[in-house]
Write a structure and sequence with these properties.
Helix content is 38%, strand content 25%. The chain is of the alpha+beta class. The protein has a 4-stranded mixed sheet. A hairpin with a 3-residue loop joins strand 2 and strand 3. Helix 1 packs antiparallel against helix 2. The longest helix is centred in the middle third of the chain and has 17 residues. The protein is globular, with a radius of gyration of 14 Å. The model has no long low-confidence stretch (mean pLDDT 92).
């Protein structure tokens, strides 16, 4: 079983960090750390070569060729899927994507 290289853009990493800082600011440092670890573990599993993903249903992201996958029903990971790598472009609230 092979894995594609995962590249996380700075904007996606900043989004994950912002959510983590919010949780930590609410007095939940253990939850913030667990969220960050779980998010990056989920993203790393996207690199499985056996899987292919569908395009986003959001018209703007679909036109750009982005693919979307939900994370914990509340967030969406937006990425570009290539043969040898996955480029994570956005990690956003699912409410911000208008279908």
């Amino acid at each position: 079983m092979g894995f594609r290289k995962i590249i996380i853009r700075e904007s996606a990493a900043e989004s994950i960090a912002a959510i983590s800082w919010f949780l930590e600011g609410e007095g939940l440092p253990a939850t913030a750390e667990k969220f960050t670890d779980d998010a990056y573990d989920f993203i790393s599993k996207l690199g499985d070569e056996r899987k292919r993903y569908r395009k986003c249903q959001d018209p703007e992201r679909n036109l750009m060729g982005y693919k979307c996958i939900p994370y914990k029903k509340k967030y969406t990971v937006v990425f570009i899927e290539l043969e040898t790598e996955i480029i994570i472009c956005e990690f956003i609230l699912s409410k911000k994507i208008y279908w």
